[in-house]
């Protein structure tokens, strides 16, 4: 019998808290100052965890890395419980996926109900209610006033892949501009745009031709001499026009610019607003499509539904996935109607937008709009304040930046030289885990703070205490 099968279902009680508590080995109290987490009852991984890891290691593809030996058994809100009963505060949401936390009762109910009706009915060929409801919902919440059309996928990568096809098909142009540090996925098209870690590309080429990687505007580590410009954003946009378009590719060959409006895997970097605005203007001038990859930054995480809204920019194509369905596999290509006009049958998917994932997305979007997007702003401000305090205390914290619950804490060996403190960040991640806080790094030496959007004051304050203790232990 699996653990899930052994677990009580919550019986027939109408009380949500009773239903939620019944799934855990011992209940979590939502109100008490001592909620019963974090708690480390056995140094992780404990015996059950080690058993699962040993089986995994025997049969898993050698490409998996695993950040640390967490073996999740269940979760609730921003709390994760492992296979041995240890409980952690979660500041990484499975890489920004668990947007509504773990097993939110409303999402669970939507999944249960839709699964009771049917799982899947190839959306390329037939119709169903949840699918059309998600299309309408996404078209309406996409930024800007132009009418949108939507294609649903199973993952972020698949959305990127489809968007490359859409943009090349649009008017026959073939070249694409992407950015250094960007992560767009690992299939051939997406990987051709990815420029995050060389390991992700090494020995896999050749990639798509006609892809050019330009500098991402990083206010903390400005690459160009920006003295001619107001900021790094303007400098990076000017470089495309003054260098790339003069030496490497004429703008009339460029189909699209793919950009993460806030850089995720590459270091949780927030560019100046001038960057996205400048790219929008450049695209308008040369008839290039602007594609915002919001797979990590979207769905309320930054305190607005989409990160590009902070710059007031409407992309031609917007990509979503990760938190969109709280962890059920769903991605989306949301494009202006004037752009999404590829021929019937030219693109499709068997499982993309399956009934269960769509139901989870509808429940997720309700929660995000009504509760968790405002909460991301509120808790984001609390976290930023706490992290800035830690920056004042620890010289190894070079920079703290963020919007909502998309926050980067960059560690350096020296504040003047800004040499990345890679080993320290890895040590913090490992030690944080053993201290009861789930963290994840990104870029060369940044901790990305991307918790479930439902975390509350307790999760922020208790998490900050462990973060502080962990840094103090290591420095
Ligand atoms: C910005 C961005 N684009 C694309 C992807 C790929 O998404 P997936 O892993 O769902 O294929 C990711 C995943 O981390 C991402 O962060």
Tell me what the structure shows:
- The radius of gyration is 22 Å and the shape is globular.
- The N and C termini lie far apart (46 Å).
- It folds into two domains: 3-102 and 374-474, Alpha-Beta Complex (Aspartate Aminotransferase, domain 1), CATH 3.90.1150; 109-367, Type I PLP-dependent aspartate aminotransferase-like (Major domain) (Aspartate Aminotransferase, domain 2).
- The chain is built from 13 helices and 15 strands.
- With 475 residues, the chain is α/β, with parallel strands linked by helices.
- 37% of the residues lie in helices and 15% in strands.
- The longest helix is centred in the C-terminal third of the chain and has 39 residues, at 355-393.
- 50% of the residues are buried.
- Pyridoxal-5'-phosphate (PLP) binds next to α7.
